[in-house]
Amino acid sequence: MEEHWVRDVLAVQLGGLTEACLPFGRPDVLTSRAVFEVEPYKSWRHGARQVLAHSAQCGLPPALALFGLIHRDDLFRFWRKLQVASWGCRTSST
User: Is the Cα torsion angle 33, 10, 65, 48 positive or negative in sign?
Assistant: First the structure.
């Protein structure tokens, strides 16, 4: 599966723009409610950094659309990493 295909389908489904121009970059999909980066699941860290930067520029919530085949064990490990990252964000802002 190609990233551009997933990006285009997501944009159509959500009624968003692809590769919209922001002052410092181009998010994969921009809607009136969120800004999205589309990445293969193995590149989630890269996508997360990008979408957080785009979110800071446009003031919309960040969203990460991941794709690709993933083994259930890898999915569990990925889910745990996101939980830890989420927990770290909550504690650092208090």
Answer: negative
